[in-house]
Design a protein that fits this description.
Layout: H1 6-24, E1 52-54, E2 60-62, H2 67-70, E3 76-80, H3 89-97, E4 103-104, H4 109-116, E5 125-130, H5 131-139, E6 143-148, E7 153-158, H6 171-178
Parallel strand pairs: 4-7
Antiparallel strand pairs: 1-2, 3-5, 6-7
Helix pairs in contact: 3-4, 3-5
Length: 189
């Protein structure tokens, strides 16, 4: 191993000291005047106490009802009606409302009209979705959902914004004129 002379050792030590000192040196930045802003004191928000209970080692459960327990139309349902049945919209509505705590209004002219409509094949399986969305899907856009919270009844009325498309007696002649028949051409051999 080569011997290091004292001057070389002294140079190496001074370089190391310079490196350490320069690494720790701080630079002064010209100071800018500090502008103090007064922020209005906001009142602390009132914390809502929610009681919890430990359920298991790492799980805390809030002792509050869920949104679906407060508003029963927010329950999530998945509905499947049998394929072979000739179901009506009323059958589908009643099936969705089973075990939800709600019942369908019956006896009104609008309810009988909606009840008699055939259920589309696309509506044989619904969900998962909320009860409200399932009812609106089954009824369609021509119907408006009305609820009676006290009696837990669901009623449908004709949407007020839609025009009345029922033909009058005077409109029958114009309806016949609107329908044109085209003669079928015989296939030529």
């Amino acid at each position: 191993m080569p011997a290091i002379s004292v001057p070389h050792a002294w140079i190496a030590a001074s370089l190391l000291t310079t490196a350490f000192v320069s690494g720790c040196a701080t630079q002064t930045v010209p100071s800018t005047p500090v502008v103090e802003q007064t922020v209005p004191a906001t009142e602390p928000e009132e914390s809502i106490f929610v009681p919890v209970v430990r359920s298991g080692r790492y799980t805390l459960v809030e002792l509050e009802p869920t949104a679906a327990q407060r508003d029963l139309l927010l329950q999530v349902v998945e509905v499947s009606l049998p394929q072979g049945v000739q179901a009506t919209v009323g059958d589908g509505l009643r099936h969705v409302l089973k075990r939800t705590g709600w019942r369908l209004c019956e006896g009104t002219a609008a309810a009988m009209e909606l009840d008699a409509l055939p259920l589309p094949v696309a509506h044989l399986h619904l969900g998962p979705m909320t009860v409200r969305n399932a009812l609106l899907t089954l009824a369609g856009s021509a119907w408006e959902l009305r609820t009676d919270e006290r009696a837990r009844q669901v009623c449908f009325v004709v949407h007020e914004d839609l025009p009345d498309n029922t033909p009058d007696a005077d409109d029958e002649s114009s309806a016949d004129q609107a329908i044109q028949s085209f003669p079928l051409r015989e296939a030529q051999p």
